[in-house]
Design a protein that fits this description.
By secondary structure, this protein is of the alpha/beta class. The protein has one domain: Rossmann fold (3-Layer(aba) Sandwich). It has six helices and six strands. Strand 2, helix 2 and strand 3 form a beta-alpha-beta unit. The protein is globular, with a radius of gyration of 14 Å. It binds magnesium ion. The site of magnesium ion has 7 residues, from loops.
């Protein structure tokens, strides 16, 4: 089967722009959250307060949150996920499907009701399109890392929203 094109369904400046209204319009009730470059910079241990408030607000509104990270550092992912009280997976191997499937099974939600929120086109958005969930792309918080710039060029054709 050919790979789907990794366009996001939504492309927003940062996660705090993801509102309950936007999620309901997409038919989404659960979010799979990337950590690095999405919720916080890769060099940070915790997100800024506005992001923590955003997560709390979505949970109050009844949305299910789940940490789906490709980060290989077990302690980093675990420490953050436990601090905010969310289920989590590290080494998720996005755009592979095993992590998405495990998340959906654990949450008891179907792909159509889930959205992957991430900063990477070829892991987060490609994985979302392959899995059949929604993809929400945010501008990476890691733009200070010069070695990500070549990848950004490769991402340019797919940095626009498609249904
Ligand atoms: Mg990331």
């Amino acid at each position: 089967m050919p790979l789907p094109l990794p366009y996001p369904h939504l492309f927003l400046p940062d996660v705090t722009h993801i509102t309950p209204e936007r999620l309901r319009a997409l038919g989404v009730s659960g979010l799979l959250l990337d950590i690095d470059g999405t919720l916080m910079q890769t060099r940070d241990a915790m997100p800024r307060q506005a992001v923590l408030d955003w997560m709390a607000h979505l949970r109050q509104e009844g949305f299910i949150l789940y940490i789906l990270s490709n980060n290989k550092h077990h302690h980093r992912v675990k420490a953050f996920a436990e601090a905010v009280g969310l289920p989590w997976q590290h080494l998720a191997k996005k755009p592979g499907l095993s992590g998405f499937r495990e998340a959906a099974r654990k949450l008891g939600l179907s792909p159509e009701t889930l959205a992957m929120v991430g900063d990477q086109t070829y892991t987060d958005m490609l994985g979302a399109r392959r899995f059949g969930c929604k993809g929400i792309l945010v501008e990476s918080t890691d733009t200070y890392l010069w070695y990500f710039w070549p990848r950004r060029l490769l991402e340019l054709p797919f940095r626009k929203e498609r249904p």
